[in-house]
Amino acid sequence: MAFSERVTRLKSSLIREILAAAQRPEVMSFAGGLPAEAMLPALDWAGMPTSMGQYGTSEGEPALRELLAAEARALGIACQASQVLVLSGSQQALDLATKLYIDKGTEVIVEGPTYLAALQTFQLFGAECLSVPLGADGPHIDALRARLEQHAPAFVYLIPTFQNPSGVRYSEAARARVAALLDEFGVTLIEDEPYRELTYDGGMAAPIAGRLRKASWVYTGTVSKTLLPGLRVGYLIASPDLFAHLLRLKQAADLHTNRVGQWQAMQWLGTEKYRQHLGELRGFYRERRDAMQQALEQHLGDLADWHVPQGGLFFWLTLKQPIDTRTLVAAAMAQDVAFMPGEPFFADPDANPGCLRLNFSHVAPHRLQEGVLRLAHVIRQAQAAQAAA
Amino acid sequence: MAFSERVTRLKSSLIREILAAAQRPEVMSFAGGLPAEAMLPALDWAGMPTSMGQYGTSEGEPALRELLAAEARALGIACQASQVLVLSGSQQALDLATKLYIDKGTEVIVEGPTYLAALQTFQLFGAECLSVPLGADGPHIDALRARLEQHAPAFVYLIPTFQNPSGVRYSEAARARVAALLDEFGVTLIEDEPYRELTYDGGMAAPIAGRLRKASWVYTGTVSKTLLPGLRVGYLIASPDLFAHLLRLKQAADLHTNRVGQWQAMQWLGTEKYRQHLGELRGFYRERRDAMQQALEQHLGDLADWHVPQGGLFFWLTLKQPIDTRTLVAAAMAQDVAFMPGEPFFADPDANPGCLRLNFSHVAPHRLQEGVLRLAHVIRQAQAAQAAA
Which pLDDT tens digit goes with each residue over A35-78? Predict the structure, then answer.
């Protein structure tokens, strides 16, 4: 049995094990990133033409591409529908970008922390992921400049708005500085924006892709966080020099994205119905965010530091006494509490102990207090044991 | 701009150009492999639970996996639902198998001719594709044995039932001999079966995967040819030693397959409604196959040889006077006729001139005669020009 060399990097995933275990109904799960079931809109399929069952184009449905391009232009990204590629979820943008850029040993720049499924995909193909630490308003600019001066990365992968896992939203100033650096060094930007619309306290900052004057870019989004993940409809928009390659890679991967999901997405994007739905979603999640904040203050205030996330789906906690949070998973699960340890969100997990990601969108409010209380006990016990050792 | 090394193998595709040009309504197209629009069933979405909009499992919907496993067992493949991975179309099986097995220079065995999108995917990752010639009843067994003796291929990729492009269905004897060889050499089988149910003259032969005693295997299918391609629902079933790897690769590619399409597929598979639909489909395509056979006999009988396909969607013609059929594309298109040249279906196109693939499922019957007549003229003119040169 001779597998490819890359399969040696296809590790078994702690995350998958946690998510699988978290599905037991008795578990209070802060682990996943699932939308609340209550906020999944009912679907109307009346009027979908039978022709949506036929093979479609690899690029995606023309009307959907137009809607997505118009939305991006409204965010300041100068683009045409011809630059839009509809995807089977925005995870696919990572697969295609990886195929386009990464050979074994290729260097790429990521945030520290960053989206772990991106890390896994880049590393599967042999990328060397170089981290730039993330602060409350964006990446450390000096560190980013140093990385760009000392390396020749294939791309910089950023999640500037309500990042998973940290919840960080880059400031206007940080966005401008990052764009200027990418232009200066001529390095491609992969900008991942699944959480842009999940904003709870107002304010808004335009994408970095729209600020670039020279560098190539891929901007990617999805309807999974705002409409329905089960449709598997995401998209990328790329600078014209990249588009044709990404299109061919999409075709080789799965020919095209499912048309029934695309048709359904078209019934929502840009409509008054969708605006209303987004408003309700923000209100619903804001309440859950606030309830989580209250529970955390009550039970974890002396154990951890955090910023209140202004959007997205996660709290990111930093323990005052760092401890490898992967060692807490089993004890928490024994108490029917699931959370996501922070270490796997870093390119170098062992060098970054002591963070936790807690999802606030999915857990039922009446179980929230109890879950956070139990988690606090687990942390206290582990830290006491560590101190005693 | 530094792309990956594999992108140098991402060629512009003659096939894509032909298919794009063939979409002009005035074109009589024998080029694609599209189901007939008239045979796309109307869909009923009533009863789909809202929860189908939520994230699903990477493996696929449990009930669908059970249905697909039961169908495979009925074909003689001993398997459980736990070995079924639902895919975003069966093209994705090629992407995942490629990631699992192929590094630059990895040898794989394919039929000559074979499915060209498989060739493209394997070659994109750097595979050396070794051909085994295909006869009327299956591959040349001595040639396959010689390949296995002289090389150590990562896998053998076969389309044993109504192959695209050749229409060949392996005999029972050929299947048994191929299975014995794969077991003898311990080489993995990738068995691609999108056309199994499109059978017009009776007879049936069980998959090769079910005949293996030792070798690893991946069996892949789809609902695209029998139900609706636009759903993008395919699947693979794998021997247990391969399944976990393929599952993780699927997760890295697009998390999971769209659930609305999976739910729709579940409404059909194994039902009386589906059996009826398949019966109507076979009748419809049988008529179109027979009409094409008649037109070919009338206009191309002196120019080419072929076997009448007993299933699938294609006639495969071999010109009596070989000529590179890629050189006929422009002249045919000028006559508003599209066809698929045969050369790109071979790992070594230039060594295999003189075949054409003609689809019979999509062209409207009243345009069939005229299209074939025009194609015959184009071939005659090119051969006359060649003889005069």
Answer: 888 899 999 999 999 999 999 999 999 999 999 999 999 999 99
Amino acid symbol at B86: V
Q: Taking the CA of residue B354 as centre, how many other CA atoms within 13 Å lie in the half-sphere pointing to its CB?
A: 13
The CATH code of the domain that includes B374 is 3.90.1150.10
pLDDT tens-digit series, residues B223-260: 999 999 999 999 999 999 999 999 999 999 999 999 99
Give the count of Cβ contacts less than 8 A between chain A and B.
211
- CB of A127 closer than 8 Å to CB of A9: no
Taking the C-alpha atoms of residue B201 and residue A247, their distance in angstroms, rounded to an integer, is: 39
Closest CA to A189 of A163, A215, A166: A215
Q: CB distance from B256 to chain A under 8 Å? A: yes
Find the helix or strand (DSSP H, E) in which B72 lies: helix B62-74
Please check whether residue A47 touches B, CB under 8 A.
Answer: no
Asked whether B160 and B196 are in contact (CB, 8 A), the reply is no
Q: What angle do CA B215, B220, B221 make, to 5 degrees?
A: 150
* Interchain CB contact of B5 with A (< 8 Å): yes
DSSP string, B24-46: STT-EE-S--PPPGGGPPP---T
A49 in any annotated domain: no
Query: What's the ipTM?
Result: 0.96
| A295 and A171 in a common domain | no
Residue A46 belongs to some domain of the structure? no
Of A271, A293, A312, the residue at which a domain comes to its end is A271
Domain around A300:
5-40+274-383
CB A47 within 8 A of CB A375: no
Report how many domains make up chain A.
Answer: 2
Judged by a CB distance cut-off of 8 A, whether residue A267 touches chain B is no
Specify whether B191 is located in the same domain as B257.
yes
- CB nearest to A92's CB, from B7, B50, B254: B254
| CA of B62 vs chain A CAs: smallest distance (Å) | 14
Q: What letter would DSSP give residue A211?
A: G
